[in-house]
Amino acid sequence: MRTDGPSAPVSREPDLRHHGDAEVRDGTLADLAVNVRAGTPPRWLRDRLSAALDGLAAYPDGTAARAAVAARHGRPPGEVLLTSGAAEAFVLLARTLRPRRAVVVHPQFTEPEAALRDAGHRVERLLLRAADGFRLDPGRVPADADLVVLGNPTNPTSVLHPAAALATLARPGRVLVVDEAFADTVPGEAGSLAARSELPGLVVLRSLTKTWGLAGLRIGYLLAAAPLVDRLARSQPLWPVSSPALVAAEACCSPGALAEAEEAAREGARHRAHLLAGLAAVPGVRVHGEPAASFVLLELPGAAAVRERLRGAGFAVRRGDTFPGLGRDWLRVAVRDPATSDAFLAALATAVRG
Question: Model-level pTM?
Answer without folding.
Answer: 0.94
